[in-house]
Write a structure and sequence with these properties.
465 residues, alpha+beta, 8-stranded mixed beta sheet
Length: 465
């Protein structure tokens, strides 16, 4: 019998365990993670023998200690303007204060010396406005993929003797064994059954399964009759171009979250996950290969390119509710046509022709990901692709060269969001002692918000113990 069972060792689960132990070291805590320990998370793609995704049973990029953010470029955005709606549950000030607290932890565990960027007082805000673009406000701590790994390693080393970790252990089922779902007392027990057939029990349970656990989360909510509502899916491409084109922005802001409202359809297109001098990578979500980007703090690992996503958010109304299913169908089409990720020169897209290996090889941008040359217009819906092309021309006005023929577009990039789970101001379901946090809740969409939600719930649990 555990005091607290945590499902998922992503940022929400990690910072929840950290704060619980800090507040009460006597607590007996178990963390169950479907993926590998951090040191065993190795993507087999080496660019030599293995050049593309081989669809591992457990994707080392998406699952394991640290979650999908472990090999991201470690950007912690301290803001309520984007990254989730945690503030709607716990208040604006408390949400920001918790994000700053997480930043303090990261600095204490190996992140010291990394730079904090800010859009405050930036002249680029005016430049964006003049060109019908909106620069969102944020403070951004950039750890880099390498320093992020150091921070996670140090956190794990601190927790491993205080918390029971179960890796490569998928939780198949969660049962509520209490007498009254509205009361937390000695009879409240949550029983989990794992993929190896074992069962474990805990008086309270924190679910933090991230975006890759979206399908699993839907099943749990259905089994426990927990209400959900449809969220959104973000569809788009990852842009790769010479780093010098965005250098004036990335040196001052590192990551600029820029929003453009298209003239044709009045859709919002936004930049996302900017990686100066970074690399483009594959991701495997539920067997579907999509694209993402990473960057490193160490200058020795820098490339000559910068990459970022251009995404369009799609919300659906009745009768269709499953936004993730729509995103998956688009990604599957890309995988079917290209065997994985497709890459296309912007100039080829504009001219209505598919890219080929020869034109890409002759271009000014050397790809950092081995992808299949192809035609994104055969994959992405016209409305989304038109919006992305409009956005590229808009960005070209503040970063001349963005709309160059040789700019590379990788597709598709999909950001899946869990259906938003019905939780209260404590991030607790209708079952007392059952909390749902992080990106798995549909409430947070970022490292900083997910981590903050973990700390918040840990404090709620500690208050009740």
């Amino acid at each position: 019998m555990y005091d607290v069972i945590i499902v998922g060792a992503g940022p929400g689960g990690i910072y929840s365990a950290y704060e619980l132990i800090k507040l009460d070291s006597s607590l007996k805590i178990a963390v169950f993670e479907a993926g590998h320990p951090l040191e065993k998370r190795r993507c087999p793609i080496d660019g030599d023998k293995v050049k593309s995704c081989i669809k591992c049973k457990s994707c080392a990029i998406m699952s394991g200690f640290g979650g999908a953010g472990a090999f991201s470029d470690g950007k912690y955005n301290i803001t309520n303007d984007f990254g989730g709606t945690l503030y709607e549950h716990i208040g604006n000030k408390q949400a920001v204060d918790l994000m700053k607290y997480v930043d303090d932890i990261n600095m204490a565990y190996g992140g010291e010396g990394t730079k904090m960027y800010s859009t405050a007082g930036s002249s680029f805000k005016t430049l964006c406005m003049i060109n019908k673009l909106k620069l969102l406000d944020a403070q951004v701590r950039h750890l880099g993929t390498d320093i992020n790994y150091v921070v996670l390693t140090n956190l794990y080393n601190d927790l491993k003797d205080k918390v029971d970790f179960f890796f490569d252990t998928r939780v198949d089922n969660i049962e509520y064994l209490g007498n009254d779902k509205d009361v937390l007392d000695d009879s409240t027990v949550y029983k989990i059954t794992t993929s190896d057939g074992n069962t474990y029990e805990g008086r309270q349970c924190v679910i933090s399964v991230g975006r890759s656990g979206s399908k699993w989360m839907e099943t749990v909510c259905k089994d426990l009759d927990i209400s959900t509502k449809s969220n959104r899916v973000d569809l788009g491409v990852r842009v790769e171009l010479p780093a010098c084109i965005f250098e004036h922005l990335t040196k001052e802001l590192y990551e600029s979250k820029i929003v453009y409202r298209t003239e044709k359809f009045e859709d919002n297109v936004r930049t996302f996950c900017m990686n100066p001098h970074g690399v483009v990578v594959n991701e495997n979500t539920n067997g579907i290969v999509t694209v993402n980007g990473h960057s490193y703090e160490d200058p020795a690992k820098h490339t000559d390119n910068t990459n970022f996503a251009l995404l369009v958010a799609k919300h659906f109304s009745e009768p269709f509710k499953n936004s993730n299913e729509y995103g998956e169908s688009i990604a599957r089409l890309s995988n079917m046509l290209g065997g994985g990720v497709i890459v296309q020169r912007f100039g080829d897209l504009v001219r209505g022709r598919r890219s080929n290996a020869k034109r890409i090889a002759e271009g000014l941008v050397v790809p950092t990901l081995a992808a299949t040359p192809g035609d994104l217009s055969l994959v992405l819906p016209k409305r989304i692709l038109d919006g992305i092309m409009e956005m590229i021309y808009a960005l070209d006005k503040i970063a001349p060269g963005t709309a160059n023929d040789d700019t590379l577009l990788y597709g598709v990039e999909v950001k899946f969001y869990n259906m938003e789970v019905d939780i209260d101001e404590n991030l607790e379901t209708k079952y007392k002692g059952l909390f749902i946090i992080g990106d798995g809740s549909g409430v947070t969409h970022s490292l900083s918000h997910a981590s903050a939600s973990g700390v918040y719930v840990a404090r709620r649990i500690a208050d009740k113990e």
